[in-house]
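Structure tokens please, single chain.
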Amino acid sequence: MSSDSSGAPVGQNYEYGTSSSEASNSDSDSSYDSNRESQGTTVEAQVIVTGNMSLDVADPAEALAHASTIVTEAGGSVAHSSLKGESDSPWGNATFKIPANSFEETRQKLAELGKVTDQSTDTADAGAEVADLDARITALKASIARLTTLIDQAETTSDLLEAERELTSRQEELDSLKAQRAWYSDQVSYSTLEVSFHSTAITPVPSSSAWEESWQAFSQGIAGLVYGLIMFVPWLIVIIPITLFFVWLYRRRRARRRARGEATPTMSTETEPEAQGDPVAQATNTLVARNM
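Here you go.
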């Protein structure tokens, strides 16, 4: 069996009875192992830097514009930005992609835009992940080349279809690995810095006139009175019937006393004429008067 320049066997001496997928899988694995062995223990560092910074500034909108200019002049870009200015405490936020070789210099320039209240920096070495991706990509490229040769030399339709299916699968896997490798490359080449801008200016509260203050106090008083009435209404349902009952009871007793007082003088006046018309009564009254 012949071999290519990497030392991996080339599947041109394809024997019938062995599927193309098995052959390509074994070729891919051997290529991957040989690539890992050739790399040895020396792995190039791939450092990813991310940072955060909080700034107190007089005008967040102006500071955000200046920060974007600083980053752009350094060869970076604005990945995301937001600004909220319609409040008592406006603030802004931005995510910058800064070239790794000018990250510290650019961050120092951004710090001069205001007062730094908080900042942090994190680093991560993705060298092992990148080396693994590179090895897999190299192995897949070699495997795809061998599968292409198998397709050209296929003698049966079934062999051709099987090789094409395997080629499609390997190509999709290769595209995925390339996308991951590109992401790592971007993260290593451009550091990420998130900056928050907070306003230090106090928004003045407009002073109101005496009339507005008086009207506000009157409105608050009316609102308090209405609230008190609303809270007192449930008690009125209980208090009013009890009060009416006692008023009715008092008036009834008073009417009875008045009726009794009017009945007593009437009886005395009715007996006086009878005593005046009776001689015996008159004599009795005279004797009583003398004895007195």
